[in-house]
Amino acid sequence: DMCQDVQQFFLATPHSKQVMMFSATLSKDIRPICKKFMQIPLKIYVLDNEAKLTLHGLQQHFVKINEAAKNCKLNDLLDTLEFNQVCIFVKSVLQAVQLDQLLRDCNFPSIAIHLGLGQEE
Q1: Do 88 and 65 belong together in one domain?
Q2: Distance between CA 63 and CA 74 in Å, rounded?
Q3: What's this model's pTM, rounded to 2 decimal places?
Q4: pLDDT tens column, 52-111
Q5: Which domain holds residue 20?
Q6: H-helix segments, the chain
Q7: Span of the secretion signal (predicted)?
């Protein structure tokens, strides 16, 4: 639960601190919790309409499939779909690293971006 994570983070840090929060999408249920830990919060909205966030011509695909068939289906989709860039989200660092290796093995240029990377990477 994101709300509980945010509360635990703020409660574990010193009371006297400067708080700045940046988010592309901050859900409505977590906003009151965040506001509780800030003094005179300032909200800046870059876009007033979330529909404007989707790039023209961007295609999004979601396939619900059992775990064992995912890699094979992904390979089929990448062979079938026409694209110049793809962003694939996974649950863990290990899955990101394994998927990156699988894509490279299938001759798809790939990079894994995850929390285990250093700032310079």
Answers
A1: yes
A2: 9
A3: 0.54
A4: 666 677 778 788 899 899 999 999 999 998 888 888 988 899 999 999 999 999 999 999
A5: 1-53
A6: 2-12, 31-36, 70-80, 93-105
A7: none
